[in-house]
Fold this sequence. Notes:
This protein is mainly alpha-helical. It has 6 helices and no strands. This is Non-specific lipid-transfer protein.
Amino acid sequence: MAIHSLELACMVAMLCMLVLNPMATASLSCDDVETELDPCVDYLFSSGTENKDECCEGVRALNERARDKADRQEACQCIKNQLGGWRALFITEEIKSLVEALPQQCGVDFKISATADCNK
Length: 120
């Protein structure tokens, strides 16, 4: 169960990087980001065989919720925090590829990158 939480956190972090940008006061919290992207954990750690529809629903919902720069910046930072440090040990190249492909697969126009600058 602890690994499942780590997996979620890592995945959420990567996904949010794609949806985010900066501004002043965010109405979106890290808890909101994790909630929207929670279904993607099973999708990513099943090599893309489970919960794709639910994951895409969450990706689209997050994209809709993070419309202003402050929310995008907050989501980006949440994702980067989850991807950093020891959590990165749980993210394989296969998972990175699945994460980067999510926007296209879910019909959302943004990119995911582990090196995203959350201040842009």
